[in-house]
Amino acid sequence: PANIQAMRPLRDGVIADIEVAEQMIKHFIDKALGGPSRLRRRSNIVVAVPSNSTIVERRAIRDATSNAGAMNVLLLEEPLAAAIGAGLPVTQPRGAMVVDIGGGTTEVAVLSLGGIAHSSSVRVGGDKMDEMIVSYIRRKHNMMIGEMTSERVKQAIGSALAPEGSGTIIAVKGRDLVNGRPSEVSVSEAEIAEALAEPVGQIVSAVRAALEQTPPELSADIIEEGITLTGGGALLRRLDQAIAAATGLPVHVADNALLCVASGAGLASEDQSYRGILMAA
Ligand SMILES: Nc1ncnc2c1ncn2[C@@H]1O[C@H](COP(=O)(O)OP(=O)(O)OP(=O)(O)O)[C@@H](O)[C@H]1O
Ligand SMILES: [Mg+2]
User: Fold this and answer.
1) 154 pocket-lining for ligand 1 (C-beta < 6 Å)
2) Atom 15 of ligand 1 has which residue's CA nearest to it?
């Protein structure tokens, strides 16, 4: 409707609209504390930031968070937060690889001793997958679908590897591009796997490139322990298998993959053994 405007204050993990971001953080603080409260003024807040974010972007995050009512803002690199949330021993002198597949970006990081030995980020994630499904259905079925429908299709039958045969088939509703009327087509798991091949390939390439850049001692640990996937994108069916096939390494999807960054930031703020890896903003 004309009187409602949808906004996305964060883009690719950093703030795109500082005022709206501040309002959003306020809202979440109240929600976490169970209603508007003066406690807000005294909270310590840990914010996970993309490892490639700039000083200017990090300052914006600090400002928005303190304006929202935090007394003390600490930053934590996102891959470390993801790894802590996934239960990896990040402060040990061992190498571990975590691949966090979010909406906007996929971050690949090699961690050891509470720090990041190597990290890279590609602008591919769940949003790109949704876009690819929209354009595939437009091209192949002459039907326009919305973003939310596309995300539902991805969650229902999306897969990183093609099934044998056509796999599960579902009905998808949209608008016919020829006559403009509402319409419905059948879409198969195999078709969606084809639509997702490009973003999945980009994620796989990013992991392979990161492995090539990993210092040898840490590679040896990763060969043993494997790769851990976090973020909502990690829930795409058979993405672990696709990465395992391309790298020859064991790949695990973290428990609660969608929540790893948040739960890792929470653990880091509570557990003294993580003190050294939190950064003053
Ligand atoms: N079951 C699922 N299968 C495939 N994708 C999923 C599933 N559940 C959630 N996703 C996708 O995960 C993405 C959101 O993941 P997440 O919450 O980790 O991202 P984010 O942290 O908000 O983004 P970013 O890290 O890029 O800033 C969305 O694109 C969503 O469609
Ligand atoms: Mg994320």
Assistant:
1) yes
2) 232
Q: Which CATH homologous superfamily contains domain 126-196?
A: ATPase, substrate binding domain, subdomain 4 (3.90.640.10)
104 close to ligand 1 (CB < 6 Angstrom): yes
Q: What is the C-alpha separation between 35 and 17, in angstroms, rounded? A: 24
Cα 125 to Cα 91: distance, rounded to the nearest angstrom: 28
126 lines ligand 1 (CB under 6 A): yes
Listed by start position, the domains of the chain span 10-79+264-280, 86-125+197-259, 126-196
The rounded distance, in Å, linking the Cα atoms of 87 and 132 is: 32
pLDDT tens, position by position, 30-85: 888 877 766 555 678 999 998 888 999 999 999 999 988 888 999 999 999 999 99
Expressed in angstroms and rounded, the spacing between residue 79 Cα and the centre of ligand 1 is: 15
Q: What is the dihedral of CA 139, 143, 149, 152, to 10 degrees?
A: -50
Q: What is the β-pairing status of strands 227-230 and 96-101?
A: parallel
